[in-house]
Amino acid sequence: MPLFFKTNVVYIFSEFAYTHDAKNQISMKKLLFRLDGVPDDEAAEVRALLDQHHIDYYETPGGMWGISVAGIWVSDKSIYDRAKPLLEEYAKERSTRMREEYARQIASGEAETLLQRAMRKPVSFIAAIAFAAAILYFSLMPFFWLAGE
């Protein structure tokens, strides 16, 4: 079960958060796992792993514009020191599992190809190609203008 802290002010610097609680005491929180760009199934597996080992944690969302640190935090260094090796072992296991799954998809022909991705989101694909072409054009045109003079 996640542990939620009521705080009045939170200062987040990289992987540490300093909070002032209701008694105006400062405590340091430690970022255990960033949730930015993490698939939902991986985040759920991390939560389940922490729950299984009875590690108290709390989550912060990325915020409306994504400028906050979305992550799983622990309340002190002793909990962090206990949880970090568990997450490192989990990351190795997941990496191996995902590589094996991808190799299986390639072998069976189920892996998504570039053409299939383009057909799934044609507008995004065309916009990305147009953006890349515009960058290439504006990057190379000054050299062509200089060569023409």
Give a verbal description of the structure:
The chain is α+β, with helices and mostly antiparallel strands. The chain has two domains: about 10-110, no CATH class; about 115-149. It is about 55% helix and about 15% strand. The protein is built from four helices and five strands; from the N terminus they run E-E-E-H-E-E-H-H-H. It has helices at about 40-50, 75-110, 115-120, 120-149; strands at about 10-15, 15-20, 25-35, 60, 70-75. It has a five-stranded antiparallel sheet. A hairpin with a 5-residue loop joins strand 2 (about 15-20) and strand 3 (about 25-35). The chain is extended and about 70 Å long. The termini are far apart.
Brief synopsis:
This protein folds into two domains: 9-111, no CATH class; 114-149. The protein is 53% helix and 17% strand. The protein is built from four helices and five strands; from the N terminus they run βββαββααα.
**Percent strand:** 15-25%
Termini gap: 70 Å
Question: How many discrete structural domains?
Answer: 2
- The portion of residues assigned to helices is 40-55%
Radius of gyration, whole Å: 23 Å
Order of H and E elements? EEEHEEHHH
Low-confidence stretches: 1-15
**In total, how many beta strands?**
5
Mean pLDDT: 83
Our count of helices gives 4
Secondary-structure-based class equals alpha+beta
- Based on CA inertia axes, which overall geometry fits? extended
Main beta sheet, described? Answer: 5 strands, antiparallel
With strands numbered from the N-terminus, the spatial order across the biggest sheet is: 1-2-3-5-4
